[in-house]
Structure formats: structure tokens, C-alpha cells
Amino acid sequence: MSTAFRLPPVDVEAAARRVMARCDELARITAVTGTIERVYLSPEHARVNRLAAEWMREIGMTTRQDAAGNQIGRLGDPDAPALMLGSHLDTVPDAGRFDGIVGVLMALEVVRLLRASALPFAIEVVAFSDEEGTRFGKALLGSSAVAGSWNDEWWALTDADGTTLREAFLEFGLDPGRIGEAARRPDELVGYLEAHIEQGPELDRRGESLAVVSSIASARRFQLVVEGEARHAGGTPYDMRHDALLGASEAALAVERICRAEHHIIGTVGQLEAYPGAVNIVPGEARLSLDLRGEFDGSRDRVWDAISGEISDIMGRRGLRWHAREVHSAPAVFCAPLLQDVVREGILSTLEPGADAPPTIFSRAGHDGMAIGALTDVGMLFLRNPDGISHHPDEAVSARDVSLGIRALAEAVLHRAAEPL
Ligand SMILES: [Zn+2]
């Protein structure tokens, strides 16, 4: 593969400075002063969409907000298929300023750098409206609408104030009856490319700026209930106790032990509650969550089988009962080989001649590409995330890595343009 031209370095550095300044500007649009919080269909969502639309028009794109509140800019022949670039502008509570945001802003800079180039496809930049699922507890709402996989059961989801998703659509000025119009057809698209911070320490540990993403982790989530017997904390001897909290605690430790022994499977118990929850009562019931992620669905499922077997043993020993309800399941999404190749070529263009191939890693975090993978080819570029901290105000990325990332992403687009549509 060969590129048509080299990007002027001075322009790429200016682009990176603009991305960093705009991350700061977007960080000031928040529902909670002193922190960053922008959730789906909120006044802050409307504000960032207006700002993103301004930035899209400034580089010659036509803009629209789709039926799910995603902000879209387009450049090129209205009838041509489009290469979609983007990420999301919504956040978790008390968020950092780069997760998602930096990918949208880098995409705009790629359009600015390439807008004079003759490309065989149109370019679209999409700022997805709800990747995190903060408000309604369901992630990827924006990208699921684009992928045509919207589920009408979601209309009844409620936020913390009891507002349904349907009501929130109406309050935001969107018509729930038109949600289908957000869906794209595969023949309208060439593929989807997203730049994102790693949200983990692998690149930082390796001393590398950028990586090719091979796949996005498969995930399963469960709510586990352990049932024992609530009894008096003073009067009940140990040999008569069926303490649900202790059973749940042993289960959480078993999750860690089994997952640590399994390469590339990560298990987390993030919630643990005891009932009735009094200081003087042996817990009669405990509830815990389990989040399981892995590179491959098969190994993830084998680990779940091992965990279930171990939990049954623990509960049997303690005279407890338990059951699990699966609340989320998503298969691993593999980045398209061609888009992995063009991202790799893009990163190579930022390295010294003769440098080793850049790292290829799988994403342990979920991304919009998980939904978009059902619609079109997906490729992802990761940026080094110092210390791997994310979903936290200390989340960081360096201007230099952003500059390398913009160059790599622009070169990746040019490499894709050199291949058959
Ligand atoms: Zn993200």
C-alpha cells in the first residue's frame, strides 16, 4: 500500500493542540459543576451537539442530528458510500475529559487535513449520543440506533428520577416514532474507524503511543443471589449459621482466583449487598454482581462454567442456596482484517523507517464499534492512556500522542482509499 501524499507535520501539531483545547472546552459543559457529567438526552447533550455541529460546519461538512440524538457531519458526494469516523461525547459521572471525546475531535481534524484530497468515498463524522449508558443503565443506545438494532423494550427504561426513555426523547425534542430513521444500511457505508484512549495501561507499560485494536471484548454480566438464614448475631453458634454474606464473599474471592489463572479473562464483583443489613443479624441473603470479559466468547464461557461450579461447592459447604440471572451478554466483536491493516499502516507512518510493527491489542472496554460491527466493518486505533486510568478525572492523554494519532488515522483513511470499496 502507498499513500498519495505526506501530511504536513506543522498542520498535524496544530490539529493536536486544537483537539486538546476543545477537550477542555467540552469538559466545561457538565451537569455537575466541578466534575464532568453529560448524560443522554440532557441539556448538556444538546449543548455539545450544537458545538460539535459548529465545528463540523467550520470544516465544510453538512450536519444533522439523527433520530437518536447522534450528531453527524458529512463531507463529499451525497450519493457515495461513506467511511464513518467517530466516537462518543457522553460521559460517566465524575468522568475524565478524553474517553470518547478525543476520538470525535481527532476525526474532525482528519477531515480538516484530508478535505482537499480526492477520496473514492464520502467521509462522515459521528458523535454518538450514548455510549456509556449512564442515564438509563443501557449502554450503546446511540450506536445501536445507527446499527438498526434498537429494541422497543428500551422505551420503558427509566432514569434515577423515574423518567422513561420515551419521555426523555420527547423532552429532548426527538420523536420516538421515528427512531428507525437513525438506522443506516450497510451499502451506505465503507466502514467505521474510531480512535479512543486505551482505558488500560498496556501501551504505557510498553512505552508505545499507539496500537491497532484486534477486537472488542466479549462480556457477560450476572446478578447473583445467595440465600441463607437470618438469625440473631449473638444467639446463633457458628455451627448453626448459614451466613449469606460470607458465602458471597468466598464467591467473590473465587472469581478473582479463577480469572487470575486464566489468560485474558477478567472478572469483577463490583456490587455486594447483605440483607436484612443490620449489625446484629447474621445476613440471610446477599446479592452480588459479576462482570466477565474476555477476548473470546468460548474462553469467557468456560470461565463462567468454572466459576459456577466453584460457587456451587462453596454454597454446598456452607448450607446456602444460590442462583444467577444473566443481565447482559455481548459477543466479542472482531475488527475487520482490512481495517486492522490500514490502521497498522497508519501507525507505521508515524514511526521511524524500519521500526517494529506497532502492537495489536484487544480492547477490554466496550465501544460503539460493538454495535456498529453489526452494520459495517469496524477498525480501531488506541492511544496511550498514562497509568491506564479512565472513567476518572485523572484520565489523560498527551498532545504528542494525539498528534501521532491524528496522523495515523488520516494515513489509515488514505490507505483505505487505496483499496477497493
Ligand atoms: Zn469511550
What topology does this entry show?
Blueprint: H1 9-27, H2 43-58, E1 62-65, E2 71-75, E3 82-88, H3 101-114, E4 122-128, H4 141-147, H5 165-172, E5 189-197, H6 202-206, E6 210-216, E7 218-227, E8 231-232, H7 244-261, E9 265-268, E10 272-275, E11 281-282, E12 285-294, H8 297-318, E13 321-330, E14 333-334, H9 337-348, E15 360-363, H10 369-372, E16 378-383, H11 399-417
Parallel strand pairs: 3-4, 3-5, 5-16, 6-15
Antiparallel strand pairs: 1-2, 2-4, 6-14, 6-16, 7-12, 7-13, 8-11, 9-12, 10-12
Helix pairs in contact: 1-3, 1-11, 3-11, 7-8, 9-11
Bound molecules: zinc ion.
How many beta-strand segments? 16
Distance between the termini: 15 Å
Instruction: Tell me what portion of residues adopts beta-strand conformation.
Output: 15-25%
Query: Rg, please?
Result: 23 Å
Q: Characterize the main sheet.
A: 9 strands, mixed
Structural class: alpha+beta
Bound molecules: zinc ion
The level of helicity is 25-40%
- Mean pLDDT, all residues: 96
Q: Which residues form runs of ≥5 with pLDDT under 50?
A: none
Query: Number of helical runs?
Result: 11
Reading the helices and strands in chain order gives HHEEEHEHHEHEEEHEEEEHEEHEHEH
Shape: globular
